[in-house]
Write the structure tokens for this entry.
Amino acid sequence: MTVRIIHCADLHLDSRMTAHLDKKRAYERNIELLQTFNRMVEYADSNDVEAILISGDLFDTPVPAEFIRDTVLDGVREHPDILFFYLKGNHDEDNVFPGDIPVNLKMFNDKWRSYSMGDVVITGLELNEKNDNIASHYLVLDKEKFNILMLHGDENYNHIKMDDYREKNIDYMALGHIHAFKKGIIDDRGVYCYPGCLEGRGFDECGEHGFVLIDIDEERRTFSMEFIPVAKRRMYQVSPDVSECTSDNEILHLLDRELADCGAGFNDYIKVVLKGNISSDRSINTLYITDYLQEKYEYAKVYDETDTLHDDYAYDESISLKGEFVRLVKNSDETEEDKAAILKMGISVITKGVISR
Ligand SMILES: [Mn+2]
């Protein structure tokens, strides 16, 4: 008999997300996060998945918006054949469900608690400052069973040390807290895994995101695992060196190549940080580049962090506004660093009419 389980974590439903998005788009993005949760549940429904493990931070806040909280509960109720195991994390640590919860939603508390699904046993505990150093001492698992352990944290947060969990008969440790996929070995028997968040919310969560699908062979007590990407949008950041680009169009071609290599598509969020050295008679029009990218992607932001080649200033003897400006700055009492910054900004205004940032 094969038992099929989904392991996810860090959905962070009802996040602020106002670092890059205005209020309206942040709200739309929250709805997308909720739809991705629904998509995962639909995947479970149509692929014979018996249980979904949520290893913490289902919500970004202990008091999620009613609509988001109730939609999650509706999704659970509408799928009575799927068991949902929800262990709270550090963002949703309070009582997120004040009312009655569906019978197929199984929760945990600050003491070890186990649920059996035939020969598969799911055990979990919500770590806190009082129990995190002693929790492993009280963990007893039947070595004849296939043991899944749910926890939220890492070495630093909640002090989860893999050494403490060796030789404890764990087969699969379903963790949450780290927002990118990560797996490793506990001992001869078990592995640990962080599935990462379901959707990236910022440029510190770039690339593919999804959940882990686990197929357990109950008799042989073996399993296989597969990462299933499910995110609607992905975040990508590229920092190309544009020193060799002699025009903004050349920068666009370079970005096209780099973003194609990433696999970025029109649903995705793009952050570009331009690097390298450009000559003083050149200024990059970031508005032009941003506009181009916004046509091709859901969201794009461009930062110009190029340095201007210092030597070029010395030779500008032209009788022009730019020449006069360069000489004025060059002969000023400013530090070399400030001179470069002032020249970069001023030349950008003079030649393109925009301030290059
Ligand atoms: Mn988290």
Remarks:
- The two ends are 60 Å apart (CA to CA).
- The CA atoms of residues 166 and 186 lie 6 Å apart.
